């Protein structure tokens, strides 16, 4: 089983990076395989496409969305390392999740 550790904050100087690295270090060597997935590295654009992500069938026009899709689709389970911004998840993480469908 592959577990994605999704780092959901993309700010410069984010505290989440140290937390995600700490989680990855603690997870290493356990039964499953763990991979740190840093949302910032994918530069997922704002969802503006006319195609509903559920209908895209994991095939996207934008290569940044496709790379994000491939990384998420390769995992069986996820650990989300995310700050709370105004009592919700960061907009970048919400947008990235909304941008995918069947994954
Ligand atoms: C825009 C913004 C909104 C925030 N809103 C909340 C909040 O609603 N509740 C909370 O407990 N902390 C809030 N915080 C504090 C962050 O959760 C905390 O600083 C966190 O470590 C930031 O993670 P990051 O550095 O990875 O972005 C907020 C921080 C920012 C920048």
Structure description:
Strand 1, helix 1 (16-27) and strand 2 form a beta-alpha-beta unit. The chain has helices spanning 16-27, 63-73, 91-98, and strands at 2-7, 33-38, 77-81. By secondary structure, the protein is α/β, with parallel strands linked by helices. 30% of the residues lie in helices and 17% in strands. The protein binds flavin mononucleotide. Flavin mononucleotide binds at residues 9, 11, 14-16, 83-87. Flavin mononucleotide (FMN) binds at residues 9, 11, 14-16, 83-87.
Structural class per helix/strand content? alpha/beta
Assign the CATH architecture.
3-Layer(aba) Sandwich
Q: The CATH topology, please?
A: Rossmann fold
Overall pLDDT, averaged?
97
Oligomeric form = single chain
Termini gap? 16 Å
Strand order of the largest sheet: 2-1-3
**DSSP, total strands:** 3
Report Rg: 14 Å
The coarse silhouette is globular
Largest β-sheet summary: 3 strands, parallel
Order of helices and strands: EHEHEH
Supply the CATH class: Alpha Beta
Topology:
Blueprint: E1 2-7, H1 16-27, E2 33-38, H2 63-73, E3 77-81, H3 91-98
Parallel strand pairs: 1-2, 1-3
This protein binds flavin mononucleotide.
Brief description of this entry?
The chain is of the alpha/beta class and 103 residues long.
């Amino acid at each position: 089983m592959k577990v994605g550790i999704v780092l959901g904050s993309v700010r410069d100087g984010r505290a989440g990076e140290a937390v995600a690295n700490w989680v990855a270090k603690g997870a290493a060597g356990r039964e499953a395989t763990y991979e740190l997935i840093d949302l910032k590295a994918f530069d997922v654009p704002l969802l503006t496409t006319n195609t509903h992500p559920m209908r895209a069938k994991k095939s996207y026009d934008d290569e940044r969305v496709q790379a994000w899709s491939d990384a998420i689709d390769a995992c069986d389970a996820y650990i989300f390392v995310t700050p709370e911004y105004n009592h919700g998840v960061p907009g970048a993480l919400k947008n990235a999740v909304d941008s995918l469908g069947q994954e």
